[in-house]
Design goal:
The longest helix is centred in the middle third of the chain and has 22 residues. Helix 5 packs parallel to helix 6. Strand 19 and strand 20 form a beta hairpin. The chain is globular. About 55% of the residues are buried. The N terminus is likely disordered. The protein folds into three domains: about 350 residues, Alkaline Phosphatase, subunit A; about 45 residues, no CATH class; about 70 residues, Arylsulfatase, C-terminal domain (2-Layer Sandwich), CATH 3.30.1120. By secondary structure, it is α/β, with parallel strands linked by helices. It binds 2-acetamido-2-deoxy-6-O-sulfo-beta-D-galactopyranose and calcium ion. Calcium ion binds next to loops. The site of calcium ion has 6 residues, from loops.
């Protein structure tokens, strides 16, 4: 850390009264703004800073090459909800049986009494906000979307929330601001049902003539903007989002938020929807990647990040802001729509050198892009320390002088600031309710029944009848199972895994894709 710079900044901010909101406790700790930019289904190899050659992500690269670019950065899970749960709460997602891919009607899965990053930061005087994807449930069951929806982000630590409830492919297809559906006409109330359609309402199965994007598996319920979704929705016409404008919409929300709160320490969780399905690039980006909509929305996401960084720069807060960039899980091509992701992939490798993808216990499921950036404070470097998104809670707590820690969230502030290479030694990763173990250079996947591959998405998910053991240093692509030839290492890995996970890890239900 550049002490001179920090002291000057602190003096200046005191002089001009820039930090208008006093912290609740006086500490010697720094209070930079903290922003988490979290993409949805972006693979390790999807950014040029991590070696992609078939598409360029100059703005993400600016963060990656100007900060710490982690080569061993992990999401906690190979799907969205559990990863987001772990990031915000600092708790392993498999400890919460509800932390799995949620329908839009699911109740909130974070306890209102649980520690979260925004709550911890609030206790140190931060203003906290979320703009973008939520997917952690809302309400307590049977949500009435026509009234203020609660509990939600605002009840688990966010002062401000502007969200989509679940995913872009799930109803309700509306934005929700501090619990209220934006633009709702009370005379056209919203009804949601994940089982049965409402009488007379078109759907993806019976009305293909109304669709502009074709479904491949799942995604054949209500049709919104020509796109068949998961779940049925009736009403709420005036509140429905425009898919092609979603990126611009969330960007503006994030920009407005930082402009409004630049004079107090703030936290922003910017949950971008790309490149999750349905991939709906704004016409400005359509066709620009040559890779079809998946590539186009990655370019769009990169552009959004560039615009967002410009805002931080223009507002004069880039040097007082720690940015964490990552993805909630690994990549998938066909995740339920025909959108040319497979056909136009060419030589692009979304997973980078890793095996598997979204839903997988192989590396690509959780081994994701991971960057920390803090202009003037973090020196550019590449770190091979193992870090997990779950570690942010304890590490950020240390940064801001909070003594809050959770047992699963390792305090790795120096690693995140590029001052140490001593990351975690071990990590349990999760994928569709199964778990596996990483320790040092080694990865171990215990035996699981079920198909080795999810056919529809064409991803090997890591199931096998026997233990799998890989040395990632020599075999980054997990091709040589050493379980038989190295029984000592296997025994050590099983012991390490079971010490964290317990012995009854195999009685879990696995994902069923339609
Ligand atoms: C799956 C969906 C997939 C995606 C995923 C959630 C089907 C057949 N597949 O169930 O399209 O929505 O859930 O993705 O419905 S995540 O990134 O939010 O975890
Ligand atoms: Ca995701």
């Amino acid at each position: 850390m550049n002490n001179f710079h920090f002291i000057t900044a602190l003096l200046l901010s005191v002089l001009i009264g820039c930090q208008s909101k006093p912290t609740k406790e006086t500490t010697n700790h720094v209070q930079p703004n903290i922003i988490v930019i979290y993409t949805d289904d972006l693979g390790y190899g999807d950014i040029s800073a991590n070696g992609a050659t078939e598409l360029q992500t100059p703005n993400i690269d600016k963060l990656a090459n100007g900060g710490v670019r982690f080569t061993n950065g992990y999401a906690s899970s190979a799907t969205c909800t559990p990863s987001r749960y772990a990031l915000l709460t600092g708790v392993y997602p498999w400890k919460n049986k509800n932390a799995k891919i949620l329908p839009g009607t699911a109740p909130l899965i974070i306890g209102t009494d649980q520690i979260t990053i925004p709550k911890m930061l609030k206790s140190k005087g931060y203003y906290t906000g979320i703009v973008g994807k939520w997917h952690l449930g809302l309400g307590t069951g049977n949500v009435d979307w026509n009234k203020t929806v609660s509990p939600g982000p605002n009840e688990v630590g966010f002062d401000y929330s502007y969200i989509m409830a679940a995913t872009q492919d799930r109803v309700p297809t509306v934005y929700i601001e501090n619990g209220d559906v934006v633009g709702l006409d009370p005379n056209d109330p919203i009804e949601i049902d994940y089982k049965n359609n409402f009488e007379g309402q078109p759907n993806g199965v019976d009305n293909p003539e109304l669709t502009t994007m074709k479904w491949h598996h799942g995604h054949n319920s209500s049709i919104v903007n020509g796109i068949p979704r998961i779940g049925y929705m009736k009403g709420g016409e005036s509140a429905k989002w425009s898919d092609v404008d979603m990126a611009d919409h969330f960007l503006k929300g994030a920009q407005d938020y930082v402009k409004k709160h630049k004079n107090e320490p703030f936290f922003l969780y910017y949950g971008m929807q790309q490149p999750h399905v349905p991939r709906t690039p704004h016409p400005r980006f359509a066709g620009k990647s040559g890779m079809g909509p998946r590539g186009d929305v990655i370019l769009e996401a990169d552009w959004c990040i560039g615009e967002f960084l410009k805002t931080l720069e223009e507002e004069g807060i880039l040097e007082n802001t720690l940015i964490v960039f990552s993805s909630d899980n690994g990549p998938v091509l066909n995740d339920g729509y025909y959108d040319d992701a497979v056909e136009k992939l060419g030589n692009h490798t979304p997973a980078g050198p890793y095996r598997g993808g979204k839903y997988s216990l192989f590396e690509a499921g959780t081994h994701v892009p991971f960057v920390t950036y803090w202009k003037g404070t973090i020196q550019p470097s590449v770190s091979n320390a193992m870090v997990c998104q779950m570690d942010l809670l304890s590490s950020l707590a240390n940064l801001v002088g909070s003594d809050i820690r959770t047992s699963d969230s390792e305090e790795l502030l120096d690693v995140f600031l590029g001052k140490s290479n001593e990351g975690r030694k071990e990590l349990v990763i999760e994928a569709t309710s199964r778990t596996a173990y990483r320790n040092g250079d080694w990865a171990m996947i215990p035996p699981y029944a079920g198909p080795a591959k999810i056919k529809q998405v064409n991803i090997e998910i890591g199931n096998a009848k026997k233990y799998q053991l890989y040395n990632l240093k020599e075999d980054i692509g997990q091709q040589n199972n050493l379980a038989k030839s190295n029984p000592e290492k296997l025994a050590e890995m099983i012991a390490g895994f079971e010490a964290i996970r317990g012995k009854d890890y195999n009685n879990t239900q696995q994902i069923k894709l339609k």
